[in-house]
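Thread: Newbie trying to understand structure tokens

Hi all, I'm a second-year student working on a class project, and my supervisor (Dr. K.) asked me to get a predicted structure for one chain before our next meeting. I've only ever worked with sequences, so writing a 3D structure as a token string is new to me. If someone could post the tokens and maybe explain what I'm looking at, I'd be very grateful. Here's the chain:
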Amino acid sequence: MKKSMRKSFNPSFLCIFLLMLSCSHREIFLKYHSFAGAEWKRDDGAVFKVEIGDNSQVCDATIEIRSDNTYSFSNIWLFVDCKSPDGSIHTDTVGADLADVKGKWFGKGLSLHNLSIPYKQNLFFPNTGTYIYSIRQGMQDNPLRGITDIALKISEKSGK
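---
Reply by user tm_fold:
Sure, no problem. This is what the structure looks like when written as tokens:
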């Protein structure tokens, strides 16, 4: 005997899906810079060229960092320079905890830890053109061991 399975439409599922979709971010830039041998030398700045064609969008920027188990600190300090198309340069100092006080790593992963660090929220690009970001490590150790990759991610906010 076969049972008849009838599919029904659930409007609450559709509402939840549309709500999640309206609050999502559309990625407009994501690029990783890898460090040979998981050693980040102070003069090895990760450079990212971000092309902005539509300056009417509000964006969020995050720094994605990957570290391995040889990283001996619970935090990291970064210097972020941004050169805008008009030639002006803005510098930020960004500090982030990578582990809690007991040494448990934040983010995802077991031997390679991925962490997303909020950098700029509600970011507005005043000009179209190429924005050049440079990220340098600001820790005392040189080279800084245990950082395998760093990335810049920029996403447009939808549903402003």
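A couple of things are worth pointing out once you decode it. Residues 11-22 form the longest helix (12 residues). The chain has one domain: 26-157. Feel free to ask follow-ups in this thread.
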